[in-house]
Amino acid sequence: xxxxxxxxxxxxxxxxxxYKAVLAPLEYExxxxxxxxMGVEYVGAGFGPRGKPEFWIGAGTPNGPVHVxxxxxxxxxxxxxxxxxxxxxxxxxxxxxVRAHYHPNYFGAFVLDLDGNNIEAVCHTTA
Length: 127
Known about the structure:
The structure is a single chain. It is built from 2 helices and 8 strands. The chain is α/β, with parallel strands linked by helices. The chain has a single domain (about 5-125), classed as 2,3-Dihydroxybiphenyl 1,2-Dioxygenase, domain 1 (Roll), CATH 3.10.180.10. The strands form 2 sheets. It has a 4-stranded mixed β-sheet, covered by helices on one side. A 4-stranded mixed β-sheet has the order 5-8-7-6, with helices on one face. Strand 6 (about 90-100) and strand 7 form a beta hairpin. Helix 1 (about 10-25) packs antiparallel against helix 2 (about 75-85). InterPro entries: Glyas_Bleomycin-R_OHBP_Dase, Glyas_Fos-R_dOase_dom, VOC_core. This is VOC family protein. It holds the Pfam family Glyoxalase.
């Protein structure tokens, strides 16, 4: 089981705003920011549900492209994620829909973030 995952991003302020908007429908929020004022060289932001940062972005040369899939509480959240991502500047990489080749209830949406990473929201239920 993973505790957290992190990506490097070219434009940290833009990426932070992007992920703040895109992850909100999935009930993730900006939980913590880290920077030089804390005595570290890393500049980063952690997003997560219930106050725990599970997904981090950090300023630097991207380490991707990578694929990250976020679990959505329902299909409506997948739709909202997709709309928010496109509005925030993501490129379509697969609209919301059933991906039966994974399993009959796999409902996902895929976008490419500002650095070309394949970001997905997925729900495994029928609603």
